[in-house]
Amino acid sequence: MDLQIKREGEFQYIDEGQGEVLLLLHGLFGALSNWNGVVDHFSKNYRVVIPLMPIYEMALHKAGVPGLVNFVEDFVKFKNLRDLTLLGNSLGGHVALVYSLNNAAKVKRLVLTGSSGLFEDSMGGSFPKRGNYEYVKERVEYTFYSPETATKELVDEVFNITNSNAKCLRIIAIAKSAQRHNMAKDITNIKVPTLLIWGLNDTITPPLVAHEFNRLMENSELYFIDKCGHAPMMEHPERFNSILEKFLDKTSIEQPT
């Protein structure tokens, strides 16, 4: 489906379907299109909302995990959203975790896939070979199990981002903020049903990270997808959606009449 970006106030976002809200948060080099398969499948029965996080535009002194959490808080308030099922990939998972801790009354379920917050090996901390297309291509391919998932369009997008000084400064600041902000002591306080969907071949947040999330979060369940890297919803959308749908059905929220 072609996703239509809505613009309202300072926000750009996707808002498709009706019903219980699935709020999706993309990662550091992510985009709204990362969630195409999820939107297409779930917008038939849910209201799927994806804010475009201001990773490349936010004020430099706010460029970090707390700044992005504040942005999500402002967006949720602006759209008057509640009873959220919060889905986050990579950095988006990290933001979802902090948001859930700060706004427990608003979050009913949590879904993490390739989430940072405990450990990650990302290329966001520095750009030793800026301007080198092959290097960027190699790093984007490293995100996936199947290199062909890294389309030319995706590589071009990341290459253009890395060639902007202003965007690079923000990426580096946010990546360092995420790496400093280890959540091992905090996430034990998250009690909502939590689904962990992980690529068995994730090289950025390896399977060990998923097991650690599962150990620390008492109300969590973990599923691995084989031949899959850091973005399962992109690389294996049908399998991802199947696992997610079963979780949503099992933990269904009764809507007020």
Automatic annotation (TrEMBL):
Any one Gene Ontology cellular component term annotated for this protein: membrane
Molecular function in Gene Ontology: hydrolase activity
Transmembrane segment boundaries: none
Record domain AB hydrolase-1: where: 22-241
Cross-referenced InterPro entries: AB_hydrolase_1, AB_hydrolase_fold, AB_hydrolase_sf
One Pfam entry name: Abhydrolase_6
UniProtKB keywords: Hydrolase
Domain of life: Bacteria
PANTHER family from the UniProt entry: HYDROLASE, PUTATIVE (AFU_ORTHOLOGUE AFUA_2G14860)-RELATED, MONOACYLGLYCEROL LIPASE
Protein name in the entry: Alpha/beta hydrolase
Phylogenetic placement of the source organism: Bacteria, Pseudomonadati, Bacteroidota, Cytophagia, Cytophagales
